[in-house]
Amino acid sequence: MGPSDVCFPDNFAGEWKVVKNVTDVKITSARELKELQDVRELKMFQALVGKTVEYPVQFMNHRGNVIASRGFNIRSSKAADAVAVGRTPGRISSLWDPDNPNVLTVSERGSPTLREIKITKRSFSAAPGGEGTFEYTEYARIVDTVDGELLDPTQRVDMPNKPKLLAKRTLAKFKIISPQQIDSLQLEYYFPYNDPTAPAEFIVKSKLSYTKQN
Asked: Taking Cα atoms as reference points, which of 147, 120, 122, 113 lies closest to residue 38?
């Protein structure tokens, strides 16, 4: 499993405004679009390409380490993504405990879907590219349920709004520009959950700029 959570440099502690630009969404699977594991997520990212998304994030001190406030951050980013593509989101709720940081659930009012994100493996490294750099990698299992019912992960995904099982790898690289600014490059790889040896079905590339708010 590795570390219990990603421990960020002390510079990250506090509140930040993020400006995110999804720069590329690459479909790497040879399968038809409707056969991919999470078409809804893919279409959301495609709609975000070329748009600027702004939202607040927080990093907190916990037991002597600086960690991301994952519950707050996912609510903030999901709401901002929805607004950026012209949708008014319902109230977004999350459950997350910094003492059990590997499990995060998120839901939106008006949607029957509950998403659970469980980190299965992670690593992080300070100064991999020299002073002021930081990066981490996380592997996650993502489970969607509707009214408590989990779909068979092997079924085809040609029906809209159905929950899915999938796997995700996130690679995030950071460069501390100044005490008030951090730049980041993020790659998200989405895999079919029922075939862990398969290549990613699609890859999302984003550039993020963090500006300190306090």
From this structure: 113
Tally Cβ neighbours within 10 Å of residue 88.
Answer: 8
114: which 2 tokens? 């509950």
pTM of the model: 0.88
Alpha carbon of 42 to those of 30, 36, 49, 191: distances in Å?
A: 15, 9, 11, 12
> Rounded mean pLDDT of the chain?
89
CB under 8 Å to 40, separation ≥6 — which residues? 160, 161
- State the SS3 of 112-169: CEEEEEEEEEEEEEECECECCEEEEEEEEEEEEEECCEECCCCCCCCCCCCCCEEEEE
Q: How far is it, in rounded angstroms, from Cα 44 to Cα 33?
A: 14
Calculate the alpha carbon distances from 20 to 68, 139, 170, 208 in Å. 17, 22, 16, 4
What is the C-alpha separation between 36 and 154, in angstroms, rounded?
Answer: 11
68 and 94 in contact (C-beta within 8 Å)? no
Condensed to tens digits (0 to 9), the pLDDT of residues 181-194 reads 999 999 999 988 77
**CA–CA distance, 142 with 180 (Å, rounded to integer):** 33
| Distance, CA of 177 to CA of 208 (rounded, Å) | 13
* 3-state secondary structure (DSSP) of residue 92: strand
